[in-house]
Write a structure and sequence with these properties.
InterPro entries: GntR_C (IPR011711), TF_FadR/GntR_C (IPR008920), Tscrpt_reg_HTH_GntR (IPR000524), WH-like_DNA-bd_sf (IPR036388), WH_DNA-bd_sf (IPR036390). This protein is mainly alpha-helical and 207 residues long. The chain folds into 2 domains: 59 residues, Orthogonal Bundle (Arc Repressor Mutant, subunit A), CATH 1.10.10; 140 residues, Four Helix Bundle (Hemerythrin (Met), subunit A) (Up-down Bundle). It has 10 helices and 3 strands. A 3-stranded antiparallel sheet has the order 1-3-2.
Length: 207
């Protein structure tokens, strides 16, 4: 539930200043009030909504700097993990990444957004876990929750670009080319930021 509301806020389906009513939201999503209340408590802790006395939860404005900060933090952590992966990853783990990228290609071919998101997550999870730095990988996962995957999974151009980047990353890992691995990893987050910011600009969020 928190993921759904978070994505709606990040994509401006729920606009800044919008009040999220417990009963209305629960009815619209076909759930009880309890999970909505718990989700709002989570989002309040993340600074996505705030509770106004006697009025309810309201969506907090999202600035361009907020989006850039999220991607900066995610990219910084990811590049640190990438440097370690280039040193520690095994040939078997690289083979697994190749198989996972093939699964992503198949999902993109089928146009199945849910499978695309799952395959993309599996690829990056395997890459991050190959580092052995589980706590740092967990922090990256925590930051990634802010990013609405459906913006990317519904974009055919993103899918083709992601596959190309993954193939280049796999090749760099096989060469043990740490500089290329870090650069390609950073480029993925730079591309993600560019696409999300462009999407939000199209909605007039910062006009």
């Amino acid at each position: 539930m928190a993921n759904r509301l978070r994505a709606d806020i990040m994509t401006r389906t729920l606009r800044p200043g919008t009040y999220i009513r417990l009963d209305e939201t629960a009815a619209a999503l076909g759930v009880s009030i309890t999970p909505v209340r718990e989700a709002l408590r989570t989002l309040r802790g993340e600074g996505m909504v705030q509770l106004e006395p006697h009025r309810g939860h309201v969506v907090v404005p999202l600035t361009r700097a907020d989006v850039e900060d999220i991607f900066w933090l995610q990219g910084t952590i990811a590049k640190e993990l990438a440097a370690t992966a280039a040193e520690r990853i095994t040939d078997a783990e690289i083979d697994e990444l190749e198989e996972l990228n093939d699964a992503l290609a198949a999902a993109i071919e089928q146009g199945n957004a849910r499978e695309i998101a799952s395959a993309e997550f599996a690829f990056h999870r395997a890459f991050n876990l190959s580092t052995g730095r589980i706590k740092l990988a967990w922090f990256l996962l925590h930051v990634a929750r802010y990013l609405p995957g459906r913006i990317y999974t519904d974009d055919a151009h993103w899918g083709a670009a992601a596959l190309t980047r993954h193939r280049k990353l796999i090749a760099a890992l096989r060469r043990r080319d740490a500089d290329a691995v870090i650069r390609l990893t950073g480029g993925e987050f730079a591309d993600g930021a560019k696409r999300l910011i462009a999407r939000l600009e199209e909605t007039g969020l910062w006009s």
